[in-house]
Amino acid sequence: xxxxxxxxxxxxxxxxxxxxxKPGDILxxxxxxxxVATTGIIVxxxxxxxxxxxEKKLVKDYLLALPFFESTREIWIxxxxxxxxxxxxxxNIPISDILISTISIHYNGYIFTSDNHFKxxxxxxxxxLKIKTGSGLNI
Length: 139
Hints:
This protein is about 50% helix and about 15% strand. The chain has 6 helices and 6 strands, in the order E-H-H-E-H-H-E-H-H-E-E-E. It has helices at about 10-15, 20-30, 40-50, 55-65, 75-90, 95-105, and strands at about 5, 35-40, 70, 110, 130, 135-139. Strands 3-2-1-4 form a 4-stranded parallel sheet. Strand 5 (about 130) and strand 6 form a beta hairpin. The protein is globular and about 40 Å long. The model is unreliable at about 125-139 (pLDDT under 50).
C-alpha cells in the first residue's frame, strides 16, 4: 500500500481559492493518483473558513470522500507529549499542527504543507516530498 499524504489546510485553501497555482497543481496530481488522505482537524480548519453554505457542502463532500485518518486516544496523548516537548525547547507551534504531525507519524504518512514550522517537528516527512514533473510527486 502506498503511503498517503495529509494535505495541510494551507494547501487546500490555495487549491479551492485559486484556479491555477503550483501547490494546487501538485495537489491535483496527488488526488488523481489517489495519494491523499485527510483527518478531522484539517477538515475542521477548512470548513471553518467557508461562509457560503452551498460551497461548504461541496467542499465537505469532497474532503470526506478521501481516506480518513482517525485521531485515537493514543494520538491525542502523543500530541500533548510532543507539544510539551516542543514548548520546552522554545518552539511555539499551534496544537492543531502538532496534532496533524502526530497523526502523520502514527499512520506513517507524509505532510504536504506550505507552513515552515512543520520542519521543526521531529519525525515529520514533509521535507521528503520531491516535485517531479509529469506524475506529481516522487516520494
